[in-house]
């Protein structure tokens, strides 16, 4: 699967729609739509064709992925924490071919991180969960697979998060605290499910574009550095399951120098658990509808099947 970045501008919402060609990816995760304002109109036309009311209700929360707005208005969602700390996070693992190498380098650097795991990957390598936790790392929910949440209904979305949360809890004895949707794309169903499962959504403020076939340790550092500041959350990948083959080498090679740059700036580098996330409108989202979904957390009878 080719990695697709999260929505970072209004035009990008249209680029996710199947009837539109994809936009081009710019530095620091900005996607520039090819059609400009016409792309937004195209998105609206597609929405109307599929049933505007239901579709837009499902898609509107994805606007929270606008990086500049979310940083100011929703600091917890953006991953803004203590001004002297940078949260180090990895997506898409664990992968037996690559994650152990990241754990080795992190151990050499005396660093801990948060790993947003895919249920399918963790199910294939359950032994890595114990090693990660024993080393002081934190496991968080990325989903059962990497399909965008906007392409799922509420039940499927809930099942994705529930199954992954339960697997992490079973393997580590510790329920995860954080969740990040694939591609960083939110939906109403995702936020409702996260609320019910007591998971805090966290995106990122900087990434290394380490999933591309041309990524190198130098390009990762050059992409990260302009957005590197205290309180930020960094996104890298410890697996190439959704990336170009072997792309993870770029992030692995960049880690020692990235850690040194944080140290030179007087910044602590560590997991989200130590990040001191700032409160914001989505820190405690009140999105519960009336009826059964108002339950805070699942009952045994609500556990999804399969």
Describe this structure in words.
Helix content is about 40%, strand content about 10%. It has about 300 residues and is α/β, with parallel strands linked by helices. Strands 3, 4, 5, 8, 9 and 10 form a six-stranded parallel β-sheet that branches. The longest helix is centred in the first third of the chain and has 23 residues, at about 35-60. The chain is globular and about 45 Å long.
Give keywords.
11 helices, alpha/beta, 306 residues, 10 strands, two-stranded antiparallel ribbon, NODB_dom
Query: What is the N-to-C order of secondary-structure elements (H for helix, E for strand)?
Result: HEEHHHEHEHHEHEHEEHEHE
Number of strands: 10
Uncertain runs are 1-65, 282-306
Q: Please give the count of helices.
A: 11
Helix content: 25-40%
Distance between the termini: 23 Å
* Overall outline: globular
InterPro entries: Glyco_hydro/deAcase_b/a-brl, NODB_dom, Polysacc_deacetylase_ArnD
Region (Disordered): 280-306
Protein name: Polysaccharide deacetylase
Domain NodB homology: 84-270
Describe the secondary structure blueprint for this structure:
Layout: H1 10-15, E1 24-25, E2 31-32, H2 37-59, H3 67-73, H4 75-78, E3 85-91, H5 99-108, E4 114-118, H6 119-124, H7 127-134, E5 138-143, H8 154-172, E6 178-179, H9 188-196, E7 200-201, E8 206-207, H10 217-224, E9 233-237, H11 248-264, E10 268-270
Parallel strand pairs: 3-4, 3-9, 3-10, 4-5, 6-7, 8-9
Antiparallel strand pairs: 1-2
Region (Disordered): 280-306
Domain NodB homology: 84-270
InterPro entries: Glyco_hydro/deAcase_b/a-brl, NODB_dom, Polysacc_deacetylase_ArnD
